[in-house]
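ESCALATION

Customer reports they have been waiting on this structure for their group meeting. Please prioritize. Original submission:
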Amino acid sequence: MAFVGAGSTITNAFVQQWDTSVRTAAQQSESRLMKAVTDRGIITGDGYTINNLGSIELEDNVVRHGDTEWADIDHSNRLAVMQDFYRALPLDRNDIPKMIINPVTGGDYMRQLMNAKNRKIDKVIYNALGGTINSKDGVTANVLPAGQKIAHGSAGFTKAKIIQARGIFRANEADEEAGEELFMMYNNEAMIDILSDTTLTTVDQLAVKMLQEGKVAQSWMGFTWIPYQGLTFTASTYYSYAWAKSGVHLGKGYEEGNVTRRGDKKDLWQVSMGASYGAGRQDEYKVVEIAFQ
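Update from on-call: job pushed to the front of the queue and completed.
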């Protein structure tokens, strides 16, 4: 007969320790593009204008004491429209005593909403880089012209495309020589293409350092590089952008997080975040679209 004692039943007394912290899923938490555009501050109204003034050249003065001849300079404007965003998270009061962690009073729900807010800012900026922006009167639709777009050419994010983008800014007098600060966004696929291109990673110490660290250098080839996974992906093609900081504007209507009791919902806790943002392209010649596969 087999012995039955404490040794065979001791596992019934085993316990499991519950986690006392909330772990955050992998995600982008900070806005990465906001620092790379022109901040228009707090906006009052449903939109804001971006006023542009064209350039003009001096002409030869060949007539002494001649009549003054006036020139005309182009004045134009465009309207960046504000967009409203909102999200709320509920927590029933009856659920709180059943939990070790309270994600409301612990701030976990609000932190997630803040992360979502920051990602939304980047999406608004991204859409403005390549989107259509209308004139204030709505008559003129300003689109990114073909000359500011680099086709995918059935190729990845190549050295040739980076150089071509750099050349476009120089041709437009929209680079550092004109006082501009240039930025370039990239996602994981672009990073793989760059780090796999031996013509880019065997030239100098900076390129070697990129290989060693497994990431794209922050400042390289005249651009400040910003990682961003929100690139549009359509028909097997990604769309990235390079731009001058002055070429895109961002305005904020309001940002408000709130924690309240909902008397109409059996006094549950509600954590909410509301915000209003609007972004617009100031000048097409300060933005370059780069398509790659």
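Sent to customer with the following note: The two ends are 71 Å apart (CA to CA).
Escalation resolved.
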